[in-house]
Amino acid sequence: MRRVPVHEKVKVPLIKNIAFALKIVWQADKRLLLGYLVNYTADRVFSLFIQNILFLKVLLSIIDGEGTFEDYVRYLLMFLGCSVFLKAINWYANYINQAATKNVLKQLNNKVFAKATELDVSCYENPEFYDKYQRATNILSWSYFDAICSATAMIVGGVLSLALVIGTVTAIDPAYLLFLCPVCLVFIIEIFKSKVVYNRDLEMTGNNRTKAYIQRTVFLKDFSKDMRTSNIFLVLMERFRASIDANIVILKKYGVKLFVYSMVSSFFSEFLPIIGTYAFAGYQFVYGKNLTVSGFSVVLSSINSVREATLGIADSFDMMTQMAYYFHNLREFFDYEPEIVGGTEICGEFESLEFRNVSFRYPSAKKDTLKNVSFTINKGETVALVGANGAGKSTIVKLLLRFYDVTGGEILYNGKNMKEYDLESLRNSYGAVFQDYKNFAVSVFENILCHECTEEEKAFAQKALEQSGIWEKISTLPKGGDTVLTKEFEKDGAGLSGGENQKVSVARLFAKDFQFAVLDEPSSALDPIAEYKMYENLIEVTGGKTALYISHRLSSAVLSDRIIVIGEGRVLEEGTHGELMSRNGEYSRMFSLQASSYNGQKEGEDDE
Fold it and tell me: What is the spatial distance between Cα 355 and Cα 399, in angstroms, rounded to a whole number?
C-alpha cells in the first residue's frame, strides 16, 4: 500500500469506492448485504410488479370476460400467499440485519482502532488529517456502511422490478419506451448532485469539528472550574456561533446548485415519462382502437410503478454515490502507511544510547528544535535532563522513543542506528512516564498492568502502587485497587487529584520490566517533598538499570549521576551537580534561583 498524504487532492473513483465499501462489509458480516438484497428485492418486485401490474392485469382480464370467478379466487389466494410469504421474508431479513449491523459495526470499529494505533504521532498535530479522520469515522458513527448496503439492495430490487414493468409495457406497445428513455439521464444528474453534496459536507467538516469540540468541552470535568471562574465560556460560544454561521454560508452557497439538480432530475424522472405516457396511452385508447380497457389500465399503473421505481433507484443511487465519497476517506485512512517504520533487529539488554549530532525540526516548524545535539548514556547511569521551557527536552524523549525520526544525525541504541530495530521491541525496552500523563476509565489495577488482572497480578500491581506512594490512598477507595478511575460510568468510581493521578501513572512504570526508564516531568503535579521522595523510590527501583529524568525542579537532579543542560536546542553543559555548580554556568544560575525561591528569598522562574 502506498502512503496517501493528507493534503493530497485526488479524483474520487466512485466505482472503486463502492466496491471497497461493499467488500469490507461483506468481509465483516455478509448477512447484512444479503439480508438487504433479499428484503428489498422481494419487496420491490412484489409491490411494483406483482401487485400493481400482474394482479391488476389478471383481474381486469377476468372482468373483460377472459376468465371465470374460480380463476379470480385462485389468483386471489396466490396473491395472498405471496403477500404472507413476503411478510415472513421481511421479518426474518430485518431480524438478521439487526444482528449483522451490530457485528459489522464492531468489526469495522476494531479495524479503525487497530489502524489508529499505527498512525504516526505527527498525524495528531495535523488539522487536515483530523478532518479526514473525522470524515472516515463518520461512516461508523452515522452507520454509512448500513446505508450503502440498503442503497445497493434498493437499486438491485428497483432495477429488477423496473425491467419487469418495462417488459410488460413493451409487450403492449414498444413505442412507450420512447417516453421512458429520459429516466436514464437521472442517474447522470444524481452523480453530479452527489459530488456537490460531498463538497458541501467537506467544507463544513472543520466547522463541525469545532462545534463537536465545544459541545464535548462544556461537559468535561477537566474544564468545569475554568468555565465557571472566567469568561472562556463566552469565547467558546462565540466560536460555536461562528461555526454555525459559517455552515449557513456554505449551505447557501451550494443550495441553488442542489435545487437546480433536483428540478432537472424531477423533470426527466417524473414529468416527461408520466405526461408523455399518459398522453400517448389516452390517444391510443380513444383514437387508436387497439388498446383495451385492461391494457390502458395496466399502462397507467405501469407508469406509476416506473415512476416509483425510478425515484427509488435515483434516491438510492444518490445515496450510494454520496457514500462512495465518504468511503474514499475511510479507504485512504486504511491505506495510510506510517513514515516511522521499524527494522528487523530485536533489542537485547541495554548497553548504551548515543545522540550523535542530532538535529530535528517539526513538520510544520520553520526552524530546528534541536541543533547538532550529542551525548551518551551508558548502562546503569541515572541522568537528569534539565533546561528552560522550550529548550527541547521533551523532543529528545519523542526521538528516543521514535515517535519522530531525526532530520539530521543519528541515534544509536547499543551502537546501532535505532531505525534498524523492530519498533515494538524498541519501545518495549523503555519504561516511560510522560508529563501529559493519562489514566483511563478502568480499574486502578488495570491502569497499572494494562490488562485484566488475576488476584496474583493484583498483588504485584499493589506493590507498584506502594512504591509510587499512592497505595495508602487507593486502599481507602470503595473497591480498593478494583475501583474505576472515574465517576462518569460508576457511582463508586474514584476522582483523584492531579498529584494522585500522576502517582498512579508512575506506578505503571514500577510494574513494567524495562531496560531504560524515561521520565518526562513525572512529578509536575507533586509538591517538592513528595517529588524528592518519589525520585528516591525511582532510583531504588531502577537500581542497576538506566534512567533518564526530565524535571524543572533541579533539587531532584542532585540525585542523578550526571546532568545534561539543554538550551535553545543545544547541549550547554554536562557533568555532576558539583561540577556544574563550580562552573557558575547556566545550571548554577537556574539552581540558585530555585533554591532562593524555596527559601522564600525571591520569586523563582518556572522553567517548564
Answer: 10
Domain residue spans of the chain: 14-335, 352-436+515-598, 440-495
For residues 511 and 504, the answer to whether their CB atoms sit within 8 Å is no
Strands (DSSP E) contained in 192-315 are none
310: nearest Cα among 179, 219, 175: 179
Domain 14-335 has CATH 1.20.1560.10: yes
The 3-state secondary structure of 200-215, one letter per residue: HHHHHHHHHHHHHHHH
> According to DSSP H, which parts of 453-547 are helical?
455-468, 471-474, 498-510, 528-541
Write out pLDDT tens, residues 315-361.
888 788 778 877 888 888 888 888 899 899 999 889 999 999 999 99
- Residue 497 has phi, psi (to 5 degrees) of -75, 170
**Cα separation, 145 vs 108, whole angstroms:** 9
The helix-helix angle for 528-541 and 498-510 (nearest 10°) equals: 10
Same fold, 14-335 and 352-436+515-598: no
Radius of gyration of the chain (CA): 35
Distances (CA, A) of 221 to 214, 228, 444: 13, 11, 19
Calpha distance 89→108 (Å, rounded)? 27
* pTM for the whole structure: 0.67
